[in-house]
């Protein structure tokens, strides 16, 4: 009960999610999305100023991670949780990313090595 009262005090002093903060976060997310669209549709496809490649993809990933931070921190209220809970969630998230990367590496390895050996070794050759 005391923690709940502390949380209410924190919200009353502007540390929580007031209407002003919601609009600020919305504006940040809108600006990041507008930059993504401007780069994708303008610089890459229309004006051909930026070429597709690893740098562009890294740029998109960074902007997406920033947007994910704002969504999780403010709209899912993780920013206002205890530090131990934030660390616990972060560790789980890191393990999930690690698992996805390992599966992509393993999938690429299997794709390359399974295509080297045909399933039917005698297909395509006839013994007439």
Automatic annotation (TrEMBL):
<keyword id="KW-1003">Cell membrane</keyword>
<keyword id="KW-1133">Transmembrane helix</keyword>
<dbReference type="InterPro" id="IPR005171">
    <property type="entry name" value="Cyt_c_oxidase_su4_prok"/>
</dbReference>
<feature type="transmembrane region" description="Helical">
    <location>
        <begin position="22"/>
        <end position="44"/>
    </location>
</feature>
<protein>
    <submittedName>
        <fullName>Cytochrome C oxidase subunit IV family protein</fullName>
    </submittedName>
</protein>
<keyword id="KW-0812">Transmembrane</keyword>
<feature type="transmembrane region" description="Helical">
    <location>
        <begin position="84"/>
        <end position="105"/>
    </location>
</feature>
<keyword id="KW-0472">Membrane</keyword>
<feature type="transmembrane region" description="Helical">
    <location>
        <begin position="56"/>
        <end position="78"/>
    </location>
</feature>
<dbReference type="Pfam" id="PF03626">
    <property type="entry name" value="COX4_pro"/>
</dbReference>
């Amino acid at each position: 009960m005391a923690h709940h009262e502390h949380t209410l005090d924190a919200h009353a002093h502007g540390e929580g999610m007031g209407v002003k903060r919601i609009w600020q976060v919305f504006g940040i997310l809108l600006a990041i999305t507008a930059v993504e669209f401007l780069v994708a549709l303008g610089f890459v496809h229309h004006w051909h100023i930026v070429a597709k490649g690893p740098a562009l993809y890294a740029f998109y990933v960074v902007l997406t991670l920033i947007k994910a931070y704002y969504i999780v921190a403010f709209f899912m209220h993780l920013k206002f949780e205890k530090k131990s809970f934030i660390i616990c969630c972060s560790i789980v998230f890191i393990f999930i990313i690690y698992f996805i990367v390992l599966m992509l590496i393993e999938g690429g390895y299997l794709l390359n090595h399974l295509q080297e050996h045909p399933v039917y070794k005698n297909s395509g050759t006839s013994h007439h």
